[in-house]
Amino acid sequence: MVPSTDAVAGAEQSAEEVVVSRDGAVGVVRLNRPKALNALSYGVVDRVMDALAGFDRDPAVGCLLLAGSRRAFAAGADIKELESETLQDMVLKRPMVAWDRIRRVAKPIVGSVNGFALGAGCELAMSCDILVAGEDAVFAQPEINLGVIPGAGGTQRLTRAVGKAVAMDMILTGRRMGAAEALQRGLVSRVVPAEAAFDEALKLAREIAAMPAIAALLAKEGVARAPEMDLDTALEYERKLFYIIFGTEDQKEGMKAFREKRPAAFRGR
Ligand code: CAA
Question: For an engineered disulfide with 25, which of 13, 93, 122, 209 has Cβ 3.0 to 4.6 Å away?
């Protein structure tokens, strides 16, 4: 059974550390471990990834929304859990492999960030496709202060998002970046008043969920793959994605509706 949006509104009261709900065609995954500032234990990461993968397979869902709570999106990996880990544990259990799952999600993921997005919290935010930040959002990769380095994509995604100089600055010193700087540097795409961040992100997710589904998926794929390819290969790749769209009913409907001067009725096919 799909929980109602009330489950989201009541997230702070829920006993669940990850609250999963549906708002129409938006699949909502909300971190809810406020006492630990949403620290990402292995269990929490697994539940987040399971929920995202579930919504990705659900044909009724067109867009995913990942959110934290008001004080923290997430303050990083669970340091209390990591403290006793050894090299052997890491190599044999390979806990960071779980993080690959968010990269395999085909549908667009909107992230809503309030408060702390630190360490793995910043890395989880950067794994989303579009970030809406509250004015109180704070991004940092402070792992160096704990004697470690980012392990869930930080050295790679932050560098791709803000460039080498700023990534080096942040990762080598652990310095924080506020919402205004994050917007200026292209880490987030929108900054709104803190209390409006979730609603704005949900509005954006609903808007994307109403788009022709296959076009949204292929558009995400093109943009997501862009940094991995040289321009020649990337343009060829985009062309193939563009050609594939012409096999969809929504392409016919979108163009027919334009000609008939009426709103398109997309069916996600
Ligand atoms: N792991 C486990 N528990 C955490 C946590 C974390 N990452 N961050 C916060 N908490 C817990 C605190 O231990 C505290 O719990 P107790 O009351 O039981 O002691 C509770 O959340 C509230 O935290 P504070 O009392 O510290 O709150 P504050 O307002 O004084 O400070 C903060 C907030 C600046 C975010 C501070 O908690 C902090 O610095 N947290 C750690 C941030 C960090 O270093 N993150 C990187 C983790 S490593 C990582 O993420 C590796 C990776 O890349 C994979």
Answer: 209
Backbone angles phi, psi at 121, to 5 degrees: -65, -40
- Sole residue written with tokens 């310095």: 175
Asked if the model's pLDDT at residue 244 lies above 50, the reply is yes
Q: pLDDT tens digits, residue range 23-37?
A: 999 999 999 999 999
Q: What confidence tens digit (pLDDT) does each residue in 78-127 have?
A: 999 999 999 999 999 999 999 999 999 999 999 999 999 999 999 999 99
* pLDDT, tens only, 127-181: 999 999 999 999 999 999 999 999 999 999 999 999 999 999 999 999 999 999 9
Q: Taking the C-alpha atoms of 190, 194, 200 and 202 in order, what is their torsion angle to the nearest 10 degrees?
A: 120
Question: What are the helix (H) ranges across 174-261?
Answer: 179-184, 197-209, 213-225, 231-245, 249-259
State the Cα–Cα distance between residues 59 and 132, nearest whole angstrom.
Answer: 25
Tokens of 76: 């990083």
Give the residue from 28, 32, 6, 5 showing the smallest Cα distance to 18. 32
Residue 77 CA, closest ligand 1 atom number: 50
Atom of ligand 1 nearest to the CA of 118: 45
Whole-prediction pTM: 0.94
Instruction: Out of 37, 42, 45, 176, give the residue to mutate to test ligand 1, the one with the largest number of ligand atoms within 8 Å of its CB.
Output: 37
Residue of 79, 85, 146, 175 with the most ligand 1 atoms within 8 Å of its CB, for mutation: 79
Going from the Cα of 184 to the center of ligand 1, the distance in angstroms, rounded, reads 27
